[in-house]
Amino acid sequence: MRTAATATGEPAQGLPDASAPRRIIVVADDYEFLDTVQVGSKAVTYECVIPRTREDFVALSEPPPSAVVVDLDARCVDPIEILYILGALSLDTKVVLLAGRDPRALANAKSVGATVSLDIAGTLPPPLSMNALLGLLASHAQTEVSISSEELRTALREQQFLVHYQPIVARKASAWPVRTMEALVRWQHPKHGLMYPGQFLGAVRSARLSTALTDFVMTEAIQQVGVWTAQGRDVGVAVNLEPRLIRDLEFAERLMRLLRQYDVEPRRFALEVIESATARDRELLADAMARVRSHGIGLSLDDFGTGNVSLMELHRLPFTELKIHRSLIREVTTSDKAATIVHGIIELAHRLSMRVCAEGVETADTFAFLQAADCDAMQGTFIAKPASVGSIGDFER
To answer: Distance of CA 133 to CAs 99, 114, 126, Å?
Structure first.
């Protein structure tokens, strides 16, 4: 699955703090690509990987690499899929695109990178030159935003973080009213303007402030649902949660206290949890999730199709909903295989008494396909982009 080649020695000129170890992950599909890497500097440890699942990147994400280079001509992996996985993991790292033969592929990769809030440092032509790569990274290092732990604590204390919402429509007879809003955190930085999760979540984790930020998002989202309920709007909210946070013994009680404080029914709140990296993690999470679920709170398995949950174990986890990853959804109208897989996931989920939500619905054709496939809920830019509360506009009650 993974090969590694290293070159260590004197720090490269122009790289700040270059005495620290630097890891660059080169995403490629075979050993031949590694032979094309021209090592002109010895200030880098690089690895050539064939990452087929989220688990592969989880194994590489501690500590976060300085950069991930994605070869857009990779054959044994889908480069666009890799970008979506990187976006879902919210790694604090630069992404460099190795331009392929098709300019349309490069344009599509840049668009996807922007959609999932990746920090795209730039593009390079093949073959990959480490001198050119380090030069590109050094130029960004001179202007990139450096986030300290104290700055994050100040942001939390002064309420610089805010929440945007993306509508999720759900089938109701022949109509598709908005029934849930996914809460997405943003940072209105006093100097750098509006920042997206990919720009600060890595620093949040490093500062061990994930619990504090999650509590902030939950509080804001639940309070907003209380406002919508008072206005007579039948809408709930979903909040993303890192799997390890749900193990906090006080998490369920804090959540229930918030729901009571803002007079919000538990059925109007759902947690979206990404697939855990290992079977051991799933065992540890099972009891904690069951406690949360016992209160009537929804549990959604986010990004299904990119992680490590086996079909044999799926029934053991107390999820009420599967969210199909956008990488599958974007191909349902052009790939028979993707369409067959999505049909199979929907049928399986329904047999397990679970709802299905499709992420990344971007076209009318995709919407029509999913409607015919008996999908329960959908979200994506075709329906609505994430926006602040004041910009969402009216929606069906």
So the answer is: 13, 21, 11
Please state, in angstroms and rounded to a whole number, the distance separating the CA atoms of residues 350 and 353. Answer: 5
Query: Taking a C-beta distance cutoff of 8 angstroms, is the pair 380, 159 a contact?
Result: no
Q: Rounded to the nearest 5 degrees, what angle is found at the Cα of 238, between the Cα atoms of 234 and 239?
A: 145
Lowest mean pLDDT among 48-57, 86-95, 192-201, 349-358: 48-57
d(CA 59, CA 155): 30
Q: Is 300 helix (H, G, I), strand (E, B) or coil?
A: strand
b (16+ CB within 10 A) / e for 360-374:
bbeeeebbebbeebe
Contact criterion met (CB below 8 Å) for 18 and 11? yes
Strands 67-71 and 178-189 turn out to be: unpaired
Confidence of residue 305 (pLDDT cuts 50, 70, 90): low
Burial of residue 393 (CB within 10 Å: 0-12, 13-18, 19+) is exposed
Dist. CA 45–CA 4, nearest whole Å = 9
Q: What average pLDDT is seen over the chain?
A: 79
Domains, in order of start, for the chain: 2-141 (3.40.50.2300), 149-392 (3.20.20.450)
CA distance 167 to 382: 11
- Enter the pTM of the model: 0.68
Tokens 């399986």 label which residue? 348
Q: What is the strand order of the sheet 23-27 is part of?
A: 2-7, 44-49, 23-27, 67-71, 94-98, 119-124
Using DSSP's 3-state secondary structure scheme, residue 360 falls into coil
* 98 burial type by CB count under 10 A (0-12 exposed, 13-18 middle, 19+ buried): buried
Distances (CA, A) of 306 to 83, 328, 335: 12, 9, 17
Task: Answer left, alpha or beta for residue 349, where phi above 0 means left and psi between -120 and 50 means alpha.
Answer: alpha
| Spatial CA neighbour of 98 closest among 64, 134, 63, 74 | 74
pLDDT at residue 276 tops 60: no
